[in-house]
Design a protein that fits this description.
The structure holds two protein chains of two kinds. By secondary structure, chain A is an all-alpha fold. Chain A has one domain. Chain A is elongated and about 70 Å long. Chain B is globular and about 55 Å long. Chain B is built from nine helices and ten strands. In chain B, the strands form two sheets. Chain B has a six-stranded mixed beta sheet with strand order 6-7-8-3-9-10. Chain B has a four-stranded antiparallel beta sheet with strand order 2-1-4-5, covered by helices on one side. Chain B has a domain of about 150 residues: 3-Layer(aba) Sandwich (Rossmann fold), CATH 3.40.50. Chains A and B meet through helix 5 of A and helix 2, strand 6 and helix 3 of B.
């Protein structure tokens, strides 16, 4: 709770005085969390679209409506699967990296050094990473979704559905709200993954397995945070008919 | 009542972690401009007391004042400007060069221009004879150089007190002796007060103006004074420490 309070105070401080944020560290963390993760996120997105299309096409083909695979993919990827799969990759890749980096610094007394200089380790180390991961998630999600659609289009092309028809169905079924809602969820997931990852790093214990435990906690905690927040959003959407 | 010559005062301080008291009822002071050494065997609580002094952990009882101020949320900013700390590992930031490490406190608190910050940082690196290593990363220099760079960073904001945690640990005798010379020179040139945690007897004999001896078994400070006084102390543990060499007890 104390850590969350420090994050909140630091974020408020940077909103009021944005020039105080270490933008260089932020840019580096953004590059590592987004551009460096594009191949894996796009690859997983493509395979996800491919598999979903194959599985659903098998059922829909019995009714001669394979083309509706496009609608299923569009709604599924934009609203749910794109953000959640990308966030899980972010938790495994960047959440653990944040925890390991900060945890190693803690073991090496670098966090104590910051404190004795009058600098907050949370503001100095965690907040740039949180800002970077929060900004990186929508970018990564867009790439994952586009790759997923490409995978689905390939399957339907093989099943005899023209790509033009596929895209028409995607455009008609994926409204602006679904896309915006998915990207908003992605942003929230990025924020949660980074908070959990940095928190695990800051609470690293000074033992031989401390950094490893912190990295594992970051991944598990990140995935749990994604699942819980997604569940809450699903319930809210159902209540509010969204 | 704190003397005007005392810059740190411990009055009935209980030192420890969480609820566990390691050293009880510590009563001593550090005088302005002196090199004060906290010594004792491994695990006796020297670093614990240091962490209280630098505000990382609150004392478990009693009063610890730096220049008349106790560590509280209100005094933290004032007190962090008064102190500089060199940690046992050096604690330099691995992704920054030595120059960037020294510039960091200047960037955050000095208000100097970039050119001014670079000039000041280079001056500090020169003071610890590391100007040639300014652009090197901590991983590219030796342990002794890392400690000197850490001292340069600790001095960046001209603190009144420099705390050094085990400065000689892990260094060969020649490098350790050079580091002791550096401490003596910096004290003479800048009139900085040094509080040094060590159990290295050659270092203690070379640099200490006064020292306090902690004994884990008795859970407190057992002797305080100049090195000569400690060597001839009535306390048997202290005499044995100096007779056999620190750290072997």
């Amino acid at each position: 709770m104390r850590y969350l309070g420090e994050v909140f105070v630091a974020l408020c401080g940077f909103v009021l005085r944005p020039w105080k944020l270490r933008w260089k560290d932020c840019a580096l963390a953004f590059e590592r969390a987004s551009f460096d993760a594009l191949p894996v996120v796009s690859g997983i997105g493509f395979l996800l679209g491919l598999i979903l299309a194959f599985q659903s096409a098998a059922a829909l083909r019995m009714f001669g409506v394979e083309v509706y695979v496009a609608d299923l993919l569009a709604i599924g990827l934009f609203r749910e699967l794109g953000p959640i799969v990308t966030a899980i990759v972010l938790a495994g890749r960047s959440g653990s990296a944040f925890a390991a980096e900060i945890g190693t610094m803690k073991v090496d007394e670098e966090l104590d050094a910051l404190s004795t200089m009058g600098l907050s380790p949370v503001g100095f180390l965690a907040v740039p990473k949180i800002v970077a991961a929060t900004a990186a998630m929508p970018v990564l999600t867009i790439f994952a979704e586009l790759a997923g659609l490409a995978g689905g289009a390939l399957v339907l092309e093989l099943l005899g559905v023209p790509v033009a028809a596929f895209w028409r169905h995607v455009v008609s079924s994926a409204g602006a709200f679904a896309i915006a809602f998915g990207l908003a969820k992605a942003t929230l997931f990025g924020f949660l993954v980074a908070i959990v990852g940095c928190g695990a790093g800051i609470s690293t214990r000074n033992t031989s397995d401390g950094v490893g435990v912190a990295a594992t906690s970051a991944v598990i905690g990140g995935i749990v945070a994604i699942a819980v927040s997604d569940g809450i959003l699903a319930v809210l959407c159902w209540i509010w008919n969204l | 009542m704190e003397s005007v010559t005392d810059i740190i005062e411990l009055s009935h301080v209980d030192a420890g972690y969480g609820r566990q008291v390691v050293l009880r009822d510590l009563n001593f002071s550090v005088r302005r401009g002196e090199i004060f050494v906290m010594l004792g065997g491994s695990g006796c609580g020297k670093s614990t007391v240091l962490k209280h002094m630098i505000g990382l952990n609150p004392v478990l009882g009693g009063r610890l004042a730096i220049d008349g101020l106790e560590w509280t949320a209100k005094t933290r900013q004032t007190l962090t400007r008064k102190i500089g700390v060199m940690f046992q590992s050096g604690a330099l930031f691995g992704s920054m060069t030595c120059l960037e490490n020294v510039m960091l406190p200047l960037e955050e608190f000095s208000g100097l221009s970039r050119a001014g910050r670079i000039g000041k940082a280079m001056e500090l690196l020169a003071a610890v004879e590391l100007e040639d290593a300014a652009e090197k990363l901590p991983g590219e220099i030796s342990g002794g150089m890392r400690k000197r760079a850490a001292i340069a960073r600790a001095m960046a904001l001209d603190p009144e007190i420099l705390f050094l945690d085990e400065p000689s640990a892990g260094l060969d005798p020649i490098t350790a002796s050079a580091l002791d010379d550096l401490v003596l020179r910096l004290r003479d040139e800048r009139s900085t007060t040094f509080v040094v945690v060590t159990h290295e007897l050659p270092s203690i004999r070379k640099i200490a103006d006064r020292a306090v001896m902690f004994d884990k078994a008795r859970g407190g400070a057992v002797a305080i004074g100049g090195v000569r006084e400690l060597e001839e102390s009535e306390d048997e543990f202290t005499r044995r420490f100096f007779a056999r060499g620190g750290g072997k007890i």
